[in-house]
Write a structure and sequence with these properties.
Oligomer: single chain
Number of helices: 4
Helix content: over 70%
Largest sheet: none
Structural class: mainly alpha
Number of strands: 0
Shape: rod-shaped
Amino acid sequence: MARPSPYPLELRRRAVRMAAEVRPDYDTEWAAMKAVASKLGIGTTETLRKWVRQDQIDAGTRPGTTTEEPAELKRLKKENAELKRANEILKAAASFFAAELDRPHTRS
């Protein structure tokens, strides 16, 4: 699991917006990102590049795994595991009751 970002979500969003806004002022996308990263105190330009790429994926303008997909997969795996446990409990209970019904009972 990825560790949480030391940068607040609002800073990340602002940086992505700024990179898009200033892009026409620079020769390359990397140069624009470098300037924004420097202005906002983001550790490396690569960090901002990853945020920009993920934003493009989430917006549907770039192929890839959206931010929501891993969370949904994790939720579904957890739900599946819970259902399997419940199924095993129900099978055990059914076997127990079937054995009880088959066992001869004596009256006292």
